[in-house]
Amino acid sequence: VTVIMGASDCVSGDTRILNPITGESPTIESLCFQNKQPIVMTLDGPEKASVPYLKGTDWLYEIRCENGRSFTATSRHRVLTHDGFVYVGALQIGQHLLAYDEYHLSYSVGL
User: What's the rounded Cα separation, in Å, for the pair 38 and 47?
Assistant: First the structure.
């Protein structure tokens, strides 16, 4: 599995990044190879992130939420919870993540 690194640390190359303005969701690998800065949702609204770059390989966690959504990331990738940002490697079963999609600014999903 290709591991791509960006400002929020490492995720699998096939991870899709939702552009909150256009609704497009390219893979982070395609953004890396196109040398393109993604638009991402932040706590302050949509912002340009740094261009992702190829890290190589690493151990990956697959995070599956109770709503059926999932993502793959390294233990050092940070996610937002009700308790603030935590590393994927420190997540506990039953902990809620804050997320967004093109229809909601934020919602809570359990692990």
Answer: 8
The single-letter code of the amino acid at 34 is: Q
Work out the burial of residue 51: count CB atoms within 10 Å of its CB; fewer than 13 is exposed, 13-18 middle, 19 or more buried. middle
Q: Is the backbone of residue 43 left (phi > 0), alpha (psi -120 to 50) or beta?
A: alpha
Give percent of the chain above pLDDT 70.
82
* pTM confidence score: 0.73
Looking at the DSSP bridge assignments, the partners of residue 85 are 80
Backbone Cα Rg of the chain: 13
pLDDT for 94 equals: 86
Structure tokens, 100: 């967004």
